[in-house]
Amino acid sequence: MTLTFRTIVMTGAFMGLAIVAGQAGAEKGELPPVTAPNAMEGRMPVPESGQVTDAPLGEASGDLSGDVPRQLDMATAVALTLARHPDIARANAALARGRADLGAARSVWTPQVAYQANLGPHMLSGSNSSGLNENMAGPTVYLEQQVWDFGRSKGQIGAARSTTNQRWYEREAAADQLAEQSAMAFLEVRRFEALAQAAETQLGDLAHLRELIGMRVHAGISDKSDLMLADVRVESARGDSIQAQTSAAMARAALANLIGGMPQQLADASALISRFEPADQEPDYDKLPTVAAAKEAADAASAKIGETKAERYPRLGLQLGYTRNNYTYNTRDNSVTALMTVSGNLYRRSDHYLVEAAEEDRRAAEAAHDSTVIEARGRALSAQQEIRAGNARISAYALQEEQAETASRIFLEEYKLGKRTLTELLNTQLEIYRAASARIVAEHDIMEARVRFENLCGNLRPSLGLPAHLSEEENPNG
Nearest CA to 58 among 268, 270, 260, 269? Predict the structure, then answer.
C-alpha cells in the first residue's frame, strides 16, 4: 500500500478514534487490538497438570528449599552436591574396604595363635577296651609366625596397597565428575533462563507492534490481513516463550535433584569462570584422578603376578605349641613343640593358568590406562576448539543482533510509509530473536567448555574456592 501525503496527515486524526473504533469492532465480532500487557498475559497459563508456572525458583514445586540458600552461586551448588550425593558415600565405603584389605594382607607377618581339639569315643575316660581312638592327641594350642614365603605376601600387600590408592583416586574422580555435573546443571539453568528472557522480550516487542497494526487497521490505513498476520506471529512468539520456560523448569529440576532444593535465584557465573586459566596448554593427564586410578589398577595387577608366581614355592614358618594327651592322662605324655614348618604344593596344574590370567589382567589394566588418557585428551581438545570457535560465534551473532535491531527500526518507519511489507517488518523481529538466542547459546557453550577443560586440568574445585581433595591427609602422593 502506498500512502499519500494527505493520508499521512489524516493518520493523526484517526489515531484519536482508535480506541472507540476498537470497542465498536469488538461489538461487531471483529478482532480486538492486543496490547502489550494483554499479549504478556498469556505467556504463562494457569498451572495445570504438566504445565509450567512463572513462579520464582523455589516456589514452582512447593517448599523444596531445605538448606539451599535463596541466592545460590556455582561454588555453593557444587559444595551442596558433594555433601549429599550418594556416589561420595559409595566411594568412601569402597576406600574403607580397600584399607581393610590392606590391613588383612599385612597381618600375614603378625604372629597367629591357633588351637585344635579332638572329640571322640573313650577320649574322656581312663579305660579303653575297644582300641578305638587309642593314643589320640588331646587339645593343642600353638603359635605360628611366618618367616619367609618367597614373595607371596609381598605381592599380596603390594596389590592391596595399589588397590587402596586406586580407590582413593576413584573417589576423587567421582568428586570431580559430580563437581562438573553440578556446575553444568547450574549453567544450564542460567542458559535457559536467559533464553526465556529473550523469548519474553520478543513476545513483548511483537505485542507492541501488533497493537500499532491494530490501530492502523481500525483507522483504515492497513489491511485486516496485516492484523491476522501479526496475531500469528504473536502466538508463535508465545509458543517460543512457553517452550523456553519449560526448558528452564526442566533445568531447575535437574539442578534441584543434585543440590537437594530449589534456590530463589542463581548468581551470574561469568565473572568466576573468566578467572579460569586460559585453555591454551594441554593438561597433564597423569595428574588426573581417573588416569592415576587406572595406573594404580595396572600396578595392582602387576603385583598379583608376583603373588601368583610365588605359589610354586613353599612357606617357611616357626611354630610353638603345647599338646595334652587325653588318653593316658599322664603328664609325661603331654608335649611341647618348637618346629620350623615347611608347607607348599608339590604339584598343582592350575598354577600355570593363574599366572597367565594375572598377566592378562595386567595387560588389560594397562590398556584401560591408555584408553583413559585418550578419552581425556579427546575431551580436552574438543573443549579447546569449542572455546576458540565460540568467541567468533559470539562476535558474529552480536553483530547480527545489532544490525537486525537497526533494520527493525528502519523497516517500521518504512512500513508506516508503505515502503515495506508487514512480512518484512515481522521478519526483522524474528531475526533479532534468533540472533539473541544464538548469542546466548554461544556464550554458555563457551562457559561450559571452560568448566569441562578446567576439570580436565584437575583444577575445577580449587578454582571454585573449594578444597582440592576430599581428604588432603590421605593423598597417596602426599
Answer: 260
Nearest to 230 by CA among 405, 410, 412: 412
If you search the block for the grid coordinates 575431551, which residue do you land on? 379
CA distance 469 to 181: 17
Element (H, E) at 207: helix 152-218
Q: Which residues lie closer than 8 Å to 402 by C-beta, 6 or more apart?
A: none
Q: Are strands 315-325 and 137-148 parallel, antiparallel or unpaired?
A: antiparallel
Rg (CA), the chain: 39
Q: Which amino acid is located at 168 in the chain? A: W
Three-class SS of 17-84: CHHHHHHHHHHCCCCCCCCHHHHHHCCCCCCCCCCCCCCCCCCECECCCCCCCCEECHHHHHHHHHHH
pLDDT in tens, the chain (478 residues): 344 333 433 344 333 333 333 444 434 333 333 333 333 333 333 333 333 333 333 333 333 445 788 889 999 999 999 999 999 999 999 999 999 999 999 998 999 999 887 766 655 555 555 556 666 667 889 899 998 888 889 999 999 999 999 999 999 999 999 999 999 999 999 999 999 999 999 998 888 888 888 887 787 777 788 888 888 888 989 999 999 999 999 999 999 999 988 888 899 999 999 999 888 888 999 989 999 999 999 999 999 999 898 888 888 999 898 887 765 555 566 788 888 888 888 888 888 898 999 999 999 999 999 999 999 999 999 999 999 888 889 989 999 889 988 988 898 888 788 787 778 888 888 889 999 999 999 999 999 999 999 999 999 999 999 998 887 666 676 5
Give the span between the Cα atoms of 444 and 196, in whole angstroms.
14
CA–CA dist 200, 433 (Å, integer): 10
Calculate the alpha carbon distances from 137 to 116, 122, 129, 325 in Å.
10, 12, 18, 5
The strand pairing partners of 444, in sequence order, are: none
Which amino acid type is present at position 191? R
Cβ-contact 205, 401 below 8 angstroms: no
| Alpha carbons 228 and 204: distance in angstroms, whole number | 17
All cell numbers assigned to 10: 489524516
Instruction: Give dist(CA 220, CA 225) in Å, integer.
Output: 12
Nearest CA among 466, 433, 457, 96 for reference residue 281: 457
Q: Distance between CA atoms of 210 and 229, rounded to whole angstroms?
A: 9
CB 358 within 8 Å of CB 305: yes
Contacts of 233 (CB under 8 A, 6+ apart): 206, 210, 426, 429, 430
- Contact (Cβ atoms closer than 8 angstroms) between residue 151 and residue 310: yes
